[in-house]
Write a structure and sequence with these properties.
Blueprint: H1 16-20, H2 34-37, E1 48-53, E2 66-71, H3 77-83
Parallel strand pairs: 1-2
Length: 91
């Protein structure tokens, strides 16, 4: 399964086109740091936003998207979320 995060390779600068028009096929899942999320407004339509956070939830700049906030104990918890087929995380 391919996840799109806006970075074409390790150490690359963020590239919005990698999220909007990814080169590799995926399942509509985009992993985006909250600091970059607002840059996507107007470039891509989000139906659902799943906010996995450690301390405080992030605001949702996509007015039409359904948002789900999920607190995690550590970033490694996400491995379990995606390994078990996810929780319906969609673009």
């Amino acid at each position: 399964m391919h996840f799109h995060d806006g970075f074409d390779y390790g150490g690359a600068e963020f590239n919005i086109q990698s999220l909007v028009s990814p080169r590799l096929p995926g399942h509509g899942i985009k992993l985006v740091d909250s600091a970059i999320l607002e840059q996507l407004v107007g470039h891509v339509k989000m139906n659902e936003v799943h906010d996995f956070y450690l301390t405080e939830p992030t605001g949702n700049p996509f007015r039409d998207a359904r948002v789900r906030h999920v607190i995690v104990q550590s970033p490694s918890d996400l491995r379990e979320v995606f390994k078990s087929g996810g929780s319906g995380v969609k673009r």
